[in-house]
Amino acid sequence: MSQSLRRGLALLNALADGARTLDQLAETVGVHKSTAMRLLRSLEDEGFVHRPDSHRYKLGSALFDLANRALDDVEVREVAREHLRELGNRTGHTVHLAVRERDQVVYVDKVDSTRPVRMYSRIGARAPLHCTAVGKILMAGVPEESRREFVTALDRPALTAHTLTDERTLLEEVRRAADENCALDRGEHEEFVHCLASGVRDARGTIVAAVSLSAPKVLLDFDELLGWRDEVTATCERISAELGWWKD
Amino acid sequence: MSQSLRRGLALLNALADGARTLDQLAETVGVHKSTAMRLLRSLEDEGFVHRPDSHRYKLGSALFDLANRALDDVEVREVAREHLRELGNRTGHTVHLAVRERDQVVYVDKVDSTRPVRMYSRIGARAPLHCTAVGKILMAGVPEESRREFVTALDRPALTAHTLTDERTLLEEVRRAADENCALDRGEHEEFVHCLASGVRDARGTIVAAVSLSAPKVLLDFDELLGWRDEVTATCERISAELGWWKD
DNA sequence: CCTCCAATTGCATGTAACGCAATGGTTATT
DNA sequence: AATAACCATTGCGTTACATGCAATTGGAGG
Predict the structure, then answer these.
(1) CB-count exposure of residue A146 (10 Å: 0-12, 13-18, 19+)
(2) Fewer CB near the last or first residue (10 Å), C or N of chain A?
(3) Rounded CA gap, A245 and A238, in Å?
């Protein structure tokens, strides 16, 4: 179904990690190079692909444009921006804003750490729900009646030695996240990084985003991280308030 | 050629200004709704489209991801980042980093003005070459032998009363931009905004990007703008130096 | 319970996309 | 300078794929 569209998208994905030549692209996508060329031509006409010179293909600006317009569409982002910056300044650590998309976390904004040792992350990056602090918060936002089912259905691969793969334990963590509006990731996603997250609610009380503070363990030990807890939840409450939510 | 791919991309464009329903989308791209649905399904599978609920389609996170990875690929961006920030802090006005893509300017980074009156712009946005300061600089980067031809071939619509539509005048401006590494836009793109730009060179001496300072005329009169000229060119020289260029 | 609106599926048709192989242009190699 | 290697591009014949239609399902609201 929509073979050529899928192939076109595959080409874009292939281009995501740098410029490629036609043959390489044809190869990685698994089509004849003439086919690849015709697809690329369409992509180029629409500005999704750019050719700096005749035998190199790169991603084009239509993509930047689209993505940034789409990010504008994430209303919470604009509201949160200033608050995230402030949290970043106060703590000096990396701050993320994340939303849920199906069974994944999507980072929609971030404030970089001011410390020399920075984590690598990128707006638009995605991560699993089960092993991230933001993920736990966002799962806590799933209506209680379907939450169990949702968590059960989730793929829960162990990404580090600390990843919670057990359904019961994870459900318990999510419940706690829901109660306390605070969740943790103790190196469950990346061995040497831990995070603390809290949720943002809109006017209807639905959790629409999560804010997290992350740092390499070498820079910030666990107790210090917990020490920022109230700052993080307060930030979320301020954002929620701007979105029209009143804490009952 | 690649009809379905083109249609798929058209769907993405249609989604760029907000969530839409299936029928609306089918309508705007001019296909039967069953066709639209099948295309959307492919887009959704690949994460380019997201359905928050069953009858709304939005742009998906694959797009954010792709775009931000592509932006990482613009090497000059990373190098420039800090310098732009500094220029922004020093001047308090909006700073843009732009590259050329065919016959357009693409903004790849920006630092927002600290003033209450902000201009609206967005990373990934595109603009014409002939009526922007960055555009003139980037055209100055076109090799001299083909420059005339390039400028001539350009569409030069008048966007404001001040837009230079005349080929000779524009060529002259571009030549001056090349000589002085400085170009101006006196409300030629947006009536009430003026800009000053300068170029960034890579190790081979090629102009790979332009840095501009923009402000609404009400905030900054023309002489004040010119007063920042040396700051802007110095910023570009620092960036160029980091890219391995030595001024001869 | 019925109505309305939007999403979805099955099916028959024809076109649009495909792979192939040959050509043309540019850059490296001897 | 000649040749090899690489990459992009085009014409062509074939068929798989995408399409529009019309009927069906599913949900929201009265």
Answers:
(1) exposed
(2) C
(3) 9
Cα–Cα distance for residue pair B96/B54, rounded to 1 Å: 39
Distance CA A233, CA A225 (A): 13
Is the separation of the CB atoms in B95 and B111 below 8 Å? yes
Per-residue pLDDT of chain B (248 residues; tens, 9 = 90+): 799 999 999 999 999 888 889 999 999 999 999 999 999 999 999 999 998 888 889 999 999 889 888 887 788 998 999 999 999 999 999 999 999 998 999 999 999 887 765 566 688 899 999 999 999 999 999 888 888 889 999 999 999 999 999 999 999 999 999 999 999 999 999 999 999 999 999 888 889 999 999 999 999 999 999 999 999 999 999 999 998 888 65
One-letter identity of residue B7: R
What are the domain boundaries of chain B? Answer: 3-65, 74-242
- Please give, rounded to a whole number of angstroms, the shortest distance from the CA of A224 to a CA of chain B: 29
A164 touches A184 (CB < 8 A): no
Contacts of B205 (CB under 8 A, 6+ apart): B245
Q: In sequence order, which ranges of A53-196 are alpha helices (DSSP H)?
A: 61-73, 75-91, 133-140, 144-153, 167-180
The full DSSP string for B73-107 is H-HHHHHHHHHHHHHHHHH-SEEEEEEEETTEEEE
Distances (CA, A) of B88 to A78, B93, B95, B211, B235: 20, 6, 6, 11, 11
Positive/negative CA dihedral, B78, B80, B85, B86: positive
CB-CB under 8 Å, B68 with A19? no
Helix (H) or strand (E) holding B146: helix B144-153
Q: Answer for the pair B197, B183: CB distance below 8 angstroms, yes or no.
A: yes
CATH number given to A74-242: 3.30.450.40
Bridge partners, residue B185, by sequence: B195
pTM: 0.86
Q: From the CA of B123, how many Å to the nearest CA of chain A? A: 7
Task: List the single residue in B17, B39, B64 with the smallest CB-CB distance to A2.
Answer: B39
Q: Whole-angstrom Cα distance, residue B232 to residue A192?
A: 41
Name which CATH class applies to B3-65. Answer: mainly alpha
Encoded tokens for A163: 């990843």
Task: Count chain A–chain B contacts defined by CB atoms under 8 A.
Answer: 165
| Cβ contact B67–A64 (<8 Å) | yes
Q: Which of residues 180-239 of A touch B (CB under 8 A)?
A: none
